[in-house]
Request: fold
Amino acid sequence: MPNIIIIIGMIFTCTIFIPATYIACLIATLMWIIIVKMPNNMTEDKNRFESLIDAIVAIILTIIVLEITMANGGSITDLLNLKVEFLAYIISFIVCFNYWMYSNDLFNSVSRVNYNVIWSMGFSLFVLSLIPYFTQFVSENFYSKVAQSIYGIIFILIIISWLITANNLKQINSDSDNLQKMIKNNYPLYAMFIIVTIGFIIGCIFYPPLIMISCLISIVAIWCINIISN
Reply:
C-alpha cells in the first residue's frame, strides 16, 4: 500500500500537482510506521541497529571536523583566530562521543529491541545529524542568541529521546539486571536536562554562549559523578 501511494503521488506530480510526490512519500512513511507497529514486532538481534548507530556517529564526527575553517596562514596567530571554531568543534565532538558512549552502554545491557526503541533512537539520530550544520552556524555566530538557542534545543531533544528510549528498553528487557540498575531512575539524564535548561534560560537572558557551554558542563558533570560513584 505505501508503494502504491508513492506511485499515485508520482502520477499527480506529472499531471496536476508537482509537490504530490513529497506528500505521498510522507504519507507512505507514516503508513510504514503504523504497519510495523500493528503486530507485536520485536527483534532479538540488536547488532545491526548498533552498527547503524556507530556508522552514523562516525559520519557526523567526520563532517564536523571537515567543516572547520582552514587557517589563512601558517602561524600560531592564524590558528588562534579560529579559537571559536575549535571550541565549537570540541564541544560538538564531546556531545557526539557522549551520545555514542551512552548508546553503547545502553544497548550492551539489553538483549532485544522493538520498533518503539528503533524509532525513538532514529529520532535522536536525526537530531544528532543536525549537529554539524549548527556547529558551523554557532562558530560563525558564537554570540547569537538564535544560534546558541537552536544548539541547546538540539541537545535537549537528544536527552528527551534518550529518556523515551530508556523507558522503552526497560519495559521489554525487564529481566536485564544491568539495564535496570543503569536506568533505575534516569537521574543522570534528568540532571543533564536541568543543567542545560538552566544554562539555556540564563544564556537567553544574559550571555548566549553559556547555552553551548552548559551542554559541555552537563556532560562533564555526569562523567565525574559516574567516576566517583564507581
Remarks:
- The CA atoms of residues 167 and 183 lie 8 Å apart.
- The longest strand covers residues 42-43.
- The beta strands are 42-43, 113-114.
- The mean pLDDT is 83.
